[in-house]
Amino acid sequence: MVARWEQLIHGTIADFQDEVELIGEDAASMDAYAASDPAEFFVVLSEYFFSSLELLAERFADLYGCSVRFYRQDPLSRLTALRSGRIQDVHIMA
Fold first, then answer.
1. What does the alpha-carbon distance between residue 63 and residue 65 come to, in Å, rounded to a whole number?
2. Distance (Å, rounded) from C-alpha 84 to C-alpha 82?
3. Where along the chain do its domains lie?
4. Cβ proximity of 61 and 32 under 8 Å
């Protein structure tokens, strides 16, 4: 999993850097600071996993899948279930 994760991050950073250069920081799909290095990319990726999960799942589906396995949770499936009425309440456990 680590090797796959590392390959995805490095490949996605390169693609994301191209995106930032092409359309600019303000129009980029994520915080442009993520393109500065792999550690910052991981931090921003983790933030988006919990706060902008639909964007992350759509734009970076493979990384979303790795994050699901890494964090051992799938917030998008919880959100989908909540929206569909399949679950009534979502509790976050510490």
1. 5
2. 5
3. 2-84
4. no
The CATH H-level (homologous superfamily) assignment of domain 2-84 is Collagenase (Catalytic Domain) (3.40.390.10)
Say which DSSP state 35 is in. G
Q: For residue 90, is pLDDT > 60?
A: no
Three-state secondary structure call for residue 63: helix
End-to-end CA distance of the chain: 25
With 0.70 as the threshold, say if the pTM is over it: yes
Residue 7: partners with Cβ closer than 8 Å, 6 or more residues away: none
What is d(CA 72, CA 62) in angstroms, rounded to the nearest whole number? 15
Give pLDDT tens digits for 2-51. Answer: 788 788 888 889 998 999 999 999 888 888 889 888 899 999 999 999 99
Residue 24 in tokens: 């600019």
